[in-house]
Amino acid sequence: MIKLKQLESLLQDVDVFEKPKIQFEQYPTSAHIASRMLYTAQSMYDDIEDKIVADLGCGCGVLSIGANQLGALYNFAFDIDDDALAICRENMEGFEIENMDLIKVDVETLSLRDKVDTVFMNPPFGTKTHKGIDMVFLKKAIDISTRAVYSLHKTSTREHIFKKAKEWGVSCEVVAELRYDIPAMYKFHKKKSVDIQVDFLRFAHPDDQE
Amino acid sequence: MRLITHNMLQCHVKGCNKDNFPLKLEEIEIEELEAEFNADFIKSMLNRLDWKALAQTTFSLGIAQLPEEMPEELNDEMLQQLHHILLEVDITSGRMVCQGCNHVYPIRDGIPNMLLTESEV
Ligand SMILES: C[S@@+](CC[C@H](N)C(=O)[O-])C[C@H]1O[C@@H](n2cnc3c(N)ncnc32)[C@H](O)[C@@H]1O
Question: Where is the Methyltransferase small domain (chain A) (predicted)?
Answer without folding.
Answer: 44-141
